[in-house]
Write a structure and sequence with these properties.
163 residues; 2 helices
Length: 163
């Protein structure tokens, strides 16, 4: 995939836990359910919508074409797929919608602020690209009173085995 994607991602929770991911350019993810080429190999299905393939992904940011970059969690190597959405949370009582202009100046727009958490919102880069969302997500931390900024990253569902 494009070299516009950060080679590494670091996601830090409010509690201080850090998750690290490294770009895996030899893989791509698709929500179309089929590989881009007959020679590409299905590696895993993250959920009912996203499949990871080994093969050469197209150049550029192809999210509009249902193609996503793939990262590997460190040190486990588990597949991780960023969606281009970023979760931003402010203190309770502060409405995320009230920060819309400030987010716009940083290149983001609010996609959704759920009724159960009006102090938080899913935002996207104004360009609509995953690369821009990942590269600029750290700028959102400069907003006054922001508590958490976390890119949405899909990973395989852990299933409990039945005994």
């Amino acid at each position: 995939m494009s070299s516009n994607y950060p080679a590494q991602l670091e996601v830090r929770s409010k509690e201080g836990a850090v998750a690290r991911y490294e770009l895996a350019p030899e893989f791509y993810a698709s929500s179309a359910g089929k590989p881009l080429s007959a020679t590409d190999r299905l590696v895993t299905q993250l959920d009912e919508n996203i499949s990871v393939f080994e093969g050469a992904a197209p150049k550029g940011d192809a999210a509009a074409d249902k193609i996503f970059p793939v990262y590997r969690a460190q040190p486990s190597g588990a597949f991780a797929v960023p969606t281009g959405r970023v979760w931003v949370r402010f203190p309770e009582g502060m409405k995320a919608e009230g920060q819309q202009e400030a987010m716009k100046k940083l290149g983001f727009s609010i996609e959704e602020s759920p009724a159960w958490a009006p102090h938080a919102a899913w935002v996207r880069a104004a360009s609509g690209t995953i690369a821009d969302a990942l590269a600029a997500a750290s700028r959102l931390k400069s907003l006054p009173d922001v508590e958490l900024v976390e890119p949405q990253i899909l990973t395989a569902l852990a299933r409990k085995s039945e005994r």
